[in-house]
Write a structure and sequence with these properties.
The protein is α+β, with helices and mostly antiparallel strands and 539 residues long. The longest helix has 24 residues. It binds manganese (II) ion.
Length: 539
């Protein structure tokens, strides 16, 4: 009865919502048939399980070789992040843990001990709990965790699954034993999976001998030299501090260099996943471009992106969508999307999906009305030419610094030609182009890699831009040089004021240059105008 009454109330509310929302939905945001010129996302890659498992095993083997027989590596699952009160953000696994296991579960811990021939790889996994699963969804059973990760030694983490972010009692006991140089193996009922379930605790002799000589090494993600709390690696930081106080024969080693080197060069599997993230993003861009003229508000255009990401089963966005019209395009990380979409203005969209833990990062800037004005086209063409120069500079052995230099030279030439700077050999350009041209792309939108030299298989972004913020000249230092600069560029500035253009493509380094992974998304002025005209004619 109670339920029936409740359903009654729900029905009334639902009807009310439908009735009241109908007129609202019939405005510009109504969904139409999709134009056939829009490229649908190709089917998701199907990755052969034995190929995938072989690659995971090879990744762990490479890490093991880098750690050596006197080393031990500990990787924790990511901690859940609070959205508000008892609501978390959607869970996302820590990249390196995922890179070695493909496991998406929280509260798991991976230990690699290459010197231990009996148990070189141990996964601590929370025991399934019907109550926890009833609330938060299914947990991996040990067999499923083995099928996903290929790890054959799985121990009960003894985690309280209702208390988030707990490495677990079993892991704590293991760690305590290791530090005391006592071989460790859980009681049989706490061993979920093992190649030799009844074996005694053994295989630690080499590690303990090294610890006796202060030659053992503990590898963690980070070196935590500052006291500031790590944004992402608090569990590692805590362990680091514990071992700093009481090393117990272990030297702390930063595991990042090992993972950075491996993650920089993408395997065929990684490239397939990343290409799919890129393909989803391309469809999102095309749908948004086709629709933009009908939108009243930026968020309506952004809704096309959200729709596409969900429709194509993206994990999520790789970073919050940036959809900015007119002067909002000059804010690099504009996220509000609350402003009107104005005909005659440019719309900058920097939106990328994440799929299979890999990010796309793609920007297009296009005219809302489908046709670039002369001034918009002049700025756009400079950015386009800078991208082309960056691509030409891409080859194995080059650096992202050199690629930036190639793009920057074109941007500076263009700005000088338009009289927006007066001196090629100055920092004037930074008023209009205030960021780098490239960053690494991978499991993060801004991925690890630092100053690495380009090699085949690496992926980075090519994203020059020019931004004429309406208040740009008001915020310069009040000195003679600035006054002179302002006076010289003012006439040109008035002409281009409010225009912001960024074009961003994802580049794969090949043996003799590069491949544009984003090539399917129109980029030349003529191609963008033709695409928009066709798409809108078809709708
Ligand atoms: Mn980017």
């Amino acid at each position: 009865m109670k339920n029936a009454a409740r359903y009654g109330v729900f029905t009334v509310i639902a009807l009310a919502v439908v009735c009241f929302s109908a007129p609202v939905r019939s405005t510009s945001a109504q969904r139409r048939n999709t134009a056939s010129v829009i490229r649908p996302t190709p089917p998701a890659p199907v990755i052969n399980d034995s190929t995938r498992l072989a690659e995971l095993a090879e990744r762990r083997a490479r890490v093991a070789r880098a750690i050596g027989p006197k080393g031990i590596l500990i990787l924790f699952s990511a901690e859940p992040r609070v959205y508000t009160n008892d609501v978390d953000y959607p869970y996302r696994q820590e990249n390196n843990f995922y890179y070695l296991t493909n496991l998406k579960q929280k509260d798991a811990t991976l230990v690699l001990m290459p010197g231990n021939a009996k148990t070189p790889e141990v996964l601590f996994l929370p025991r399934r709990s019907a109550m926890a699963e009833g609330r938060n969804g299914r947990m991996y059973g040990p067999e499923e965790a083995r099928q996903i990760s290929g790890i054959k030694e799985i121990w009960d983490a003894e985690v309280n699954v209702f208390r988030p972010s707990d490495a677990g009692r079993q892991f704590e006991a293991f760690l305590k034993a290791i530090r005391a140089r006592q071989p460790y193996r859980p009681q049989p009922e706490k061993i979920f999976l093992s190649t030799s379930p009844t074996a005694p605790a053994e295989g630690y002799a080499g590690l303990f001998e090294a610890a006796t000589k202060n030659e053992a090494q503990l590898f963690l993600l980070g070196s935590f030299s500052s006291d500031n709390e790590s944004r992402e690696y608090r569990q590692e930081q805590k362990l680091f501090q514990d071992f700093t106080k009481s090393p117990d024969g272990f030297t702390l080693k930063n595991a990042w260099p090992i993972f950075i080197e491996m993650r920089l060069r993408k395997s065929a599997i990684e490239l397939q996943l990343m290409q799919h993230a890129i393909d989803i993003s391309i469809e999102a861009h095309e749908r948004a471009q086709a629709f933009a003229e009908e939108a009243k508000w930026e968020y309506e255009v952004d809704a096309e992106v959200a729709h596409t990401f969900k429709l194509r089963n993206a994990d999520n966005w790789a970073y919050p969508d940036i959809v900015g019209c007119g002067p909002n395009a000059t804010t690099l990380h504009y996220q509000e999307s609350q402003a009107p979409v104005t005909p005659g203005a440019l719309l900058l969209m920097d939106v990328g999906a994440e799929y299979g833990h890999y990010a796309a990062d793609v920007t297009r800037t296009f005219p809302v009305n489908g046709k670039f004005s002369k001034e918009q086209a002049e700025i756009y063409q400079i950015v386009y030419d800078a991208q082309e120069a960056a691509a030409k500079a891409t080859r194995p052995g080059a650096t992202l610094g050199q690629i930036h230099a190639a793009a920057l030279a074109v941007i500076k030439d263009g700005l000088l030609r338009l009289r927006l700077i007066t001196d090629l050999n100055s920092m004037q350009y930074r008023v209009w182009f205030m960021h780098g041209t490239s960053h690494w792309l991978g499991m993060n939108a801004h991925d690890v890699g630092g100053g690495a030299t380009l090699a085949p298989g690496m992926v980075f972004t090519n994203e020059p831009g020019i931004y004429l913020r309406p208040d740009a000249l008001d915020n310069l230092p009040k000195d003679e040089a600035s006054e002179k600069f302002i006076a010289a560029v003012r006439p040109a500035f008035e002409k281009y004021k409010g225009i912001g253009v960024r074009i961003e493509d994802d580049m794969l380094v090949t043996a003799d240059g590069c491949e544009w992974l984003t090539a399917a998304l129109p980029r030349r002025i003529a191609d963008i105008e033709a695409f928009i005209a066709k798409a809108r004619a078809q709708q």
